[in-house]
């Protein structure tokens, strides 16, 4: 195994970690419009991800940086060809980050509602577009002999990619529902458990169809195995949700995401971006990678600092492991009425 193969695996692991962790962030953000009945319940939901959402996004930054350093050709083609959807994702993530901080700065319901909409759309848009982007990477796009994307934005909105976007939206929302049930108590916990059943069944049907379509296009023995494991984990997650075992449901939904994303990378290898025009125009782990010296330096840096980052993030989750109840949230209505009166 060459270093460019090692770094393809490393980047796959970074994306898997990002979707596992940021997936429930997106799901909680989307569900704030459906699960929360009032301001206190909405604050409960936001507080479940408040201490960890920014740490989860470190996985995205690291994945992007690792791609730039290890596979500069891949990075250049991806970020130029997918410029518009990636820009929309970036804008949505920025709005969501600002909303988490600014929604509590004002005292009026109108102020909070505006930022709550930013949280909702800032979670929903990336949850869809990440699926669209990765589906197009696996399916292949129009690359010329210089590895430049020569298609249009509408070419990216093909049926396979749109199904991929729907799958990630529903799967992340289900992941967020079981996380909400795991981290809350009282009525909102019961409501999240009820939502999770319907979302889990929908995710199982959609993800199963999408993975089957993927394997028909790019058959691979290992990918078939991980796809089966992903389906089993997702089905088991729905079953234990029925028994109100939130911890197991969350773990299994996370494993379903892990194996589903792993299936995409296994189906993609050894390509990093296939061309639908000619085979010679495709980018592979070999022709898109940096020099062996660069990859060697990156390997030493990752071996030193990655365990530190993992230990710190694990400690953060341990510190904020307790459930949150509406009784932990002060009533904001008196302040809102006073502000409106003034």
Please give the radius of gyration in angstroms: 21 Å
Helix count?
13
Stretches with pLDDT under 50, minimum 5 residues: 335-342
Instruction: Give the helices and strands as they follow along the chain.
Output: HHHHHHHHHHHEEHH
User: What's the story with the biggest beta sheet?
Assistant: 2 strands, antiparallel
Please list the strands of the largest sheet in the order they lie side by side: 1-2
Name the helicity range: over 70%
- Please report the total strand number as a whole number: 2
Structural class: mainly alpha
Rounded mean pLDDT is: 90
| Measured distance between first and last alpha carbons | 69 Å
Shape: globular
**Percentage of residues in strands:** under 5%
Q: Into how many domains do the coordinates divide?
A: 1
How do the strands and helices of this protein lay out in sequence?
Elements: H1 3-31, H2 39-49, H3 53-56, H4 58-70, H5 72-81, H6 83-102, H7 109-139, H8 159-183, H9 187-217, H10 221-242, H11 246-268, E1 271-273, E2 283-284, H12 292-319, H13 333-341
Antiparallel strand pairs: 1-2
Helix pairs in contact: 1-4, 1-7, 1-8, 1-11, 4-5, 6-7, 7-8, 7-11, 8-9, 8-11, 9-10, 9-11, 10-11
Kindly list the characteristics that best describe this protein.
single chain; 342 residues; mainly alpha; two-stranded antiparallel ribbon; 13 helices; 2 strands; globular; disordered C terminus
Give an overview in words:
The protein is mainly α and 342 residues long. It has one domain (3-337). The protein is built from 13 helices and 2 strands; from the N terminus they run αααααααααααββαα. The protein has a two-stranded antiparallel sheet with strand order 1-2. α1 crosses α11 (246-268) and α7 packs across α11 (246-268). It is globular, with a radius of gyration of 21 Å. Mean pLDDT is 90; it is low at 335-342.
